[in-house]
Amino acid sequence: MIHDPKALRAILEAAAPDVELTFRAMFGGILAYVAGKPVASLSDVGVALKAGGPEYAALLALPGAVALRYEPDAPPSKSYVVVPHAMLADPDALRTAIIRCIASLPVAGTKRAKAAKSG
Prior knowledge:
The protein has 119 residues and is α+β, with helices and mostly antiparallel strands. It has a single domain, classed as Yope Regulator, Chain: A, CATH 3.30.1460. Helices cover 34% and strands 24% of the residues. The chain has helices at residues 5-15, 53-60, 91-104, 111-118; strands at 21-26, 29-34, 37-43, 46-50, 66-67, 80-82.
């Protein structure tokens, strides 16, 4: 299924109105950011959330989720997972996934990010 990045942006904003997302056009799609860090790719392949550690595996394990590939012959992303199509129609599930993925990522300047660099 081909998706419209602008429509996906509206879905993301509606699902997580309390998350301070910013957006930038990128290579025919849109990247979503939190605190200046990329957290989602919105493209014709769907909404791909960026996740770290165990959250990446948990998201990838959802039925219908796949590692992001912009082209069929491209290698799968090791940090972005395209959420299942059904999740786009379930704002609560999408919001939960967004929040969990953001929490799994280090944020510059936080103790978590500093600990990761020193460890």
